[in-house]
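Quarterly update from the structural biology core.
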Amino acid sequence: MPSSSSPSAAALADLWYQRYRTALPAELATLLQEGALPVNDVLLTALRHHSVRHYADIPLPAGALELGIAAASSAPTSSNLQTWSVVAVEDPARRQELAELSGHQPYVAQAPLFLAWIVDLSRLERMAEREGLGSAGLDHHEAFLMASFDTALAAQNSALAFESMGLGTVFIGGLRNEPEKVAELLGLPPRCVAVCGLSVGVPAQMTAEERRPAIKPRLGQEVILHREHYSAQEEPAHIAAYDSRADTYQQEQGLPSRQWSSTAAGRMAEASGLGERAMMGAILKRLGFPLK
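Predicted structure, tokenized:
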């Protein structure tokens, strides 16, 4: 077991501070000092995660794609139904089209690999047809929710794997801006929808002037971790403290000062904050998901 003075334990304490902008809790520090908790590369890679939006003009190492997808396949899957697929897009012209459909995000085109993660109920439907069975269960909300969850688990597993190889990633929620056009571009059959994208590549080298802390602070565990039962009694004070920490990060990045809580709440204040995604229910039905 590593001691608190070992490089890995010291790295964990540093990454904890960057993630929460608070010191490692004394109890946790003691456990590390006593060697009661392991510190390993998987844990450090997870804590080190940050979105990469600038990529070098370098191809992915041979085999990196296949290893990333093997990690995705190793994620849990409900009832072993495996209700997801992924489309790997390496063609520059196609990546450029996806960049435009995703809200003109340049790194979608810049990264050498773009993965479109697909909620895929079509495969089960085809299997049922070959078996001479119906597929009424696929029409219900639960099937879509289950497949969405499985797809997210697979995508996150792959991101962790790619980052463990020294590659950079950024998830692209903008892939849901134009779901029907994306489906057409990728040749998706009915009962398939691309729910998120993942850009993957070698991070671009930055100058010392450009390099800033990249790990974005998250809500503290006093907000998100509930023990035995849910309680929001002290939430306002803790979120106010996080607002201050998050704003410090904003300014470190050279971005305008802002309050996270009011920005997040404002995003959901009106359906217009979702853009065209506010019509997702109708879009999904057109893509073959009845959602009963």
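The two ends are 52 Å apart (CA to CA).
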